[in-house]
Amino acid sequence: MEKEQILDFTRRISQSNRSGLTVINYEIIFAYLDDAKKAYQEEKWEEFKVALRKAQNSIGELMQTLDFSYDISRNLYRIYVFCRDSLAAAMYKRSLTEIETAEKMLRKLYQSFCKVAETDSSAPMMKNTQQVYAGYTYGKGDLVENCQELDKSRGFFA
What we know:
- The chain is mainly alpha-helical.
- The protein has helices at about 5-15, 20-40, 45-65, 70-95, 95-120; strands at about 130-140, 140-150.
- It has a single domain (about 5-120), classed as Up-down Bundle (Four Helix Bundle (Hemerythrin (Met), subunit A)), CATH 1.20.120.340.
- A two-stranded antiparallel sheet has the order 1-2.
- Helix 3 (about 45-65) runs antiparallel to helix 4 (about 70-95) and helix 4 (about 70-95) packs antiparallel against helix 5 (about 95-120).
- The longest helix is centred in the N-terminal third of the chain and has 24 residues, at about 20-40.
- It is globular, with a radius of gyration of 18 Å.
């Protein structure tokens, strides 16, 4: 994953609510899967394994956030286990087939979680973070984001 992507995910995480965090987690998984596919094409097997392990860890994060008081969580858990195991199989087989199978399933879930996130109007999970404003100024060929430090006592309180 490129540094710019990491910074974008970090900024979005700081501004997101609970369902938004789930959507971002899916996008992180897809970024790692793209990295794995790129490494596969270039036959960089160590990078291939690292990208798949990071994708597996992100799937593990999704598994940890499930609330098993809902029946659907059990089904989601099984899907996540299948996808995680498919990525493990792709790692030792050095195959894209298992990656594509897992990604196809995760993309369907991602679309569903995007719809849920659109209706979620809850407050962001992180409080006391910088406000990010986009669109006030434009750079050459792109949109410039501006972070304003309005509250100097941001962070941990002693």
